[in-house]
Amino acid sequence: MTQNPENKSNLLSSTQLESLAITPYITSQEETKPHMPTPELSPEAVRAVTCERLKLLSYGFYLKGAMCALVASIFILHFFVLLAVSFIPEQDWQNTSAPVTSSETTKSDHANKLAAPYSKQKNSSSDRQNSHRNSAPPKIIFRIFAAVIGLIILLGWILGGLTIYAGRCIQNRRRRTFVYVIAGLHTLSFPYGTALGVFAIITLSQADTQKEYPA
């Protein structure tokens, strides 16, 4: 059986009317539906979270300080080697030859007498070259390098000690400005120092963290 196009249009219009009638009811139900309030943390829970963040931050400073001191200590061997080389006497830099027997000396003397007229100029040039080869290098070069390496070691130890002390200050809730300065210095050492410094600055700038520090 075939439906009349007029009946079909009547059916469509009726379904549309029903949907239009139901829609205001659905929207009114959604508007009247109560919204669940977001749970708020108690002050004790907020303080516990803040203390846990500061605890993790202090551990990060301890680790970074130990890493700075350890990396600086790698150059201790280079420092002592260069310092020891700078104290080697000049005569030890010269080449030592094996002892010559009497028969070898007589043969060499006879050969030198025969070749004396032709070897004066060669001997003078060779003596100059040997003197340059056997001369000791300037000691000041080794001592300058040793001083630079020693300064690097000292700075690494100082920075490591200050970083460990900053971690101690975070645990004791004091000297927040000092911790800011150490965190800013460590932002220059990518990637761990940068992450630690940014995390420290963000954590110490929060209002909940500032409440933990005495006024």
In short:
The protein is built from 9 helices and no strands.
Which descriptors apply to this entry?
9 helices, mainly alpha, 215 residues, 78% helix, rod-shaped
Describe this structure as you would to a colleague:
This protein is mostly helical and 215 residues long. It is built from nine helices and no strands. It has helices at 5-32, 43-73, 76-86, 102-114, 116-134, 139-172, 176-186, 192-205, 207-212. The longest helix has 34 residues, at 139-172. The protein is rod-shaped.
SSE run: HHHHHHHHH
Overall mean confidence score, pLDDT: 75
The count of strands amounts to 0
Q: Helical segment tally?
A: 9
Write the layout of secondary structure elements.
Blueprint: H1 5-32, H2 43-73, H3 76-86, H4 102-114, H5 116-134, H6 139-172, H7 176-186, H8 192-205, H9 207-212
